[in-house]
Amino acid sequence: MRPTAEQVILVTGATDGLGQAVAGELATRGATVLLDGRDDGRLADTIEEIHARTQSQELRAYRADFSSLHEVGDMAERLERDQERIDVLVNNAGIGSTLPGDGRRMESRDGHELRFAVNYLAHFLLTRRLEPLIRASAPARIVNVSSAGQAAIDFDDVMLERAYDGTRAYCQSKLAQIMLTFDLANELRDAGVTVNCLHPATAMPTKIVMHARGGALSTLEEGLEATVRLAADGELEGVTGRYFDGQSEAGAHAQAYDPEARRRLRELSEGLVGLGP
Length: 277
Known about the structure:
Number of strands: 8
CATH superfamily: NAD(P)-binding Rossmann-like Domain
Number of domains: 1
Strand content: 5-15%
CATH topology: Rossmann fold
Largest sheet: 8 strands, mixed
Order of helices and strands: EHEHEHEHEHEHHEEH
Helix content: 40-55%
Low-confidence stretches: none
Structural class: alpha/beta
CATH architecture: 3-Layer(aba) Sandwich
Oligomer: single chain
Shape: globular
Strand order of the largest sheet: 3-2-1-4-5-6-7-8
Radius of gyration: 17 Å
Distance between the termini: 29 Å
């Protein structure tokens, strides 16, 4: 890959927690960093803070609320129009098991279960829309920030309308990200694009973790190092289709390795976001 200082890197969920830390570290290394967030004010504040710390002039804001597929599609269109390439896509934006809604079932603007919509469907749409630009930027990377918390998808009740639990909803959405990772890795293996995912660290002191648990078990720096490693470490050149727990390769939930389950999820997702196969 190009040196990090010559890369254009998109980080979703970049105005808080891990995403903000990753965006700041990549800016420190000289990359052109495209920051996604759902609030213009927070995006402006984040860019101001990162600029003050790194002196980077290569910071760009892209606003989209990931609870709206329409807004995600609009952001993808702006990126396609504005950017000649995207060398790395870090799909990080997400919500937790209790925030928002204290764990109760909520729906996105499109009527989908909110955690599945924000954590997975929005990134499915964004990645698929940006795929031609990422292919054209090869060698390139896609990094999906998932979780060790994973739950099998019940294809008879994907939106969890029968028996809702916030933790199950969160864990299902994170497994869906891993299944997307493995699918994309197979598709893009010969295109010079690697696709990997990770559990960055256990219970970092982020807003969603502190709301759910009231305390942290690891540092933000641990998750930052693991995520930036997948995005920028030259030693991982050509490594694709892997799930990492921190910086160690690990095994994901068994359903992630089931081609039929991944096919069903892919076809369901294409229908929900309005993309053809």
